Amino acid sequence: MPVTDTTQNEETLTLTIVAEFAAPPQRVWDIYADPRQLEQIWGPPTYPATVVDHSLEPGGRVTYFMTSPEGEKFRGLWEVTAVDRLKRLEFRDYFADEDFAIVESMPGSRCIYTFEETETGTRATYESVFDSVEGLRTVLEMGVVEGTTGAINQIDDLLAQQ
Asked: The Activator of Hsp90 ATPase homologue 1/2-like C-terminal domain covers which part of the protein (predicted)?
């Protein structure tokens, strides 16, 4: 299992997940840079993702939906704010409606994904910073830790296919 640590901190409004992959940063980065690969790991295993738009550059957007086992679609979007290829990706992450407009009643977060080379591959740190403690609590109650851990743990299977 790639996920090695999960922490949440209400004082800093953060949820941080750390994972280790037996692949170089280029290979891990490629998963996020390619919408077809991103679909295979974004969302929990039983909620497959479909990426609709994918512009991984500052000012770009990534829109997607995840489909539940019952066929219900859950939409989201990223507003990409910074990209340091192979090393860092920053974006605002939001829940979205059917037209991929931000759902203001749901919490958004600023996400900072960092990828660093290690002796055995790549250490990825996934940090989400919420606007309020209520927003952090809301997503924790929704099962974001379990869902995100399940999603990240799918990366090993994708890496093994290449």
From this structure: 22-159
